[in-house]
Amino acid sequence: MNMNEIAELTTTKASPEVFQQLGTITRQLHDALHQLGVMPKLQKAADGIPDARSRLNYIAEKTGAAANRVLNLVDQAKGEHARIAEQTRAIAQSIVADPVKAVASGSLMNFVGDVESATQRIDQHLTDIMMAQDFHDLTGQVVAKVVALAGDLEDSLIKLLVQAAPAEHAKVVEATLNGPVVNPEGRTDVVANQSEVDDLLASLGF
Amino acid sequence: MTAPTDMKFLIVDDFSTMRRIVRGLLKEIGYLNAEEAEDGAVALQMLKNAKFDFVVSDINMPNMNGFELLSQIKKDDGLKHLPVLMVTAEARKEDIVRAAQDGAAGYIVKPFTKATLEEKVQKIMLKLAATA
Fold first, then answer.
1. Beta bridge mates, A69
2. From CA B44, how far away is CA B68, in angstroms rounded?
3. Domains, in order of start, for chain B
4. What does the angle CA A79 – CA A82 – CA A83 come to, to the nearest 5 degrees?
5. B12 forms bridges with which residues in the sheet?
6. Does the beta-carbon distance from B100 to A204 stay under 8 Å?
7. Which domain holds residue A62?
8. Per-residue pLDDT tens for A54-112?
9. Is residue A64 one of the residues assigned to a domain?
10. Contact A191 B95 (CB under 8 A)
11. Residue B107 touches partner A, C-beta closer than 8 Å
C-alpha cells in the first residue's frame, strides 16, 4: 500500500461499524501482545529508544569533534613542516653560496633554533592527535549499550512479526539506501572494495 | 578548457569531516579550488549560482540525496556537462549500476585512499579532455 492509498483511506468518511471493527482489532492486538509475553520486553526496549537516540547523538558529537580536532592539528603540523622544508632549502642555498657567511651571519644558528622550536610544536600536535583518539573508548562503551538495546527490540519485533503478520505482508522491504555494508562476506549483491566497483563498471562498459 | 589546477570542485557530503578530508586530499593532489555543500539541495543551488568544473558527491544525504542531485544535474542543460564523481558508503551493486546509468562519471566506495581519488579524478579529466 502506498502513501496515496493510505491518504485516501484516512480521508474517506468511515462508518461507525468501521470504527467498531478497528476497536475490536486493536483490542485483539493488545491481548495478543500480552499473551505472546513480549509486551514487557518490547515496552522496556521502546522506553530505551529516546535514551538510545541521545547515546547515538553523543557518539556522533564525540567522533565529529575528534575528527575535526585531528584535522585541525594535521593542518597546523603540515604548516610547520612546510615552513621547515622551505627554511632548509634556503639555508642549504646559503651554505653552498658562502659557508662562512652563513655561519658568521647567524643564519645557521637561527635555522637550528627554528627547527628545534618547530619540532617541539609538531611533537605537541602529534601528542594531541593521539589524545584525540580517546573518544574511541567512550563511544565503544556507548555503542555496546545501544547494540544490546537494539538486540532486545529486534527480538521482540521478530516475535511479533512471526505471530501477527499476515503472510502477504511478511515480506521485508529493504530501505533504498543502506549505508556502509558491515559484513560483505558471502553477499553477492554488494561490492567489498573499490576494485570490485571498477570491475562491475567495466563489465557494463562504463 | 580550464587548466586542471584552476578547476573548481564542489564537494557534497552531509558529514563536514568527510568534506574536509576530500577537500584536503584534492588539495594534496593539486586542486586547490573547492567549495562545500552539505546536501544535494544546497549543492544544486550553488551549481546554479556559480560556475563549477567538477562535482564530488556522497549519495546518502538528507533533503536531496546524491542520486537526486545527479538526476537534476543531468536534466539541466546548463549543468549536464559537469562530471559527477560519487564518493559513498553505498556498496550495493544496483546502486553502482544506477549511478553509472544515470550519468555519474565515476564511483568510489568509502573508505577510500588518496590514490583512488587521484586515479578517478585524473581518469575523468582525461576523458573530458579527449571529448573537448
1. none
2. 10
3. 4-131 (3.40.50.2300)
4. 90
5. B37, B57
6. yes
7. 17-164
8. 888 888 888 898 999 999 999 999 999 999 999 999 999 999 999 999 899 999 999 99
9. yes
10. no
11. yes
Which residues of chain A does B17 touch, with a Cβ-Cβ cutoff of 8 Å?
64, 67-68, 71
Q: In this structure, is residue A4 part of a structural domain?
A: no
Question: Which chain A positions have a beta carbon within 8 Å of B25's beta carbon?
Answer: none
User: For chain A, how many structural domains are there in total?
Assistant: 1
How far A10 CA lies from chain B's nearest CA (Å)? 26
Mark yes or no for CB contact B93/A193 under 8 Å: no
Q: Assign residue A106 a region: left if phi > 0, alpha if psi is -120 to 50, beta otherwise?
A: left
Whether residue A97 is contained in a domain is answered as: yes
Is A50 at the interface with chain B, CB within 8 A?
Answer: no
Burial classification of residue B3, based on how many CB atoms lie within 10 Å of its CB (0-12 exposed, 13-18 middle, 19 or more buried): exposed
Measured N-to-C along each axis, helices A16-36 and A39-97 cross at an angle, to the nearest 10 degrees, of 80
**Residues in chain B within 8 Å Cβ distance of A184:** 91
Which residue positions in chain A have pLDDT lower than 50?
1-3, 5-7, 9-11, 172-175
Place of cell 542543460: B77
* pLDDT given at position A88: 95
- Three-state SS sequence of A18-73: HHHHHHHHHHHHHHHHHHHCCHHHHHHHHHHHHHHHHHHHHHHHHHHHHHHHHHHH
Sign of the CA dihedral A83, A86, A90, A92?
Answer: positive
**CATH number of domain containing A52:** 1.10.287.500
Question: Is A177 part of the contact surface with chain B (CB cutoff 8 Å)?
Answer: yes
CA distance B91 to chain A (A): 5
Whether residue A103 lies inside any domain: the answer is yes
| Per-residue pLDDT band at B94 (split at 50, 70, 90) | very high
Which residues 26-55 in chain B show a CB within 8 A of chain A?
Answer: none
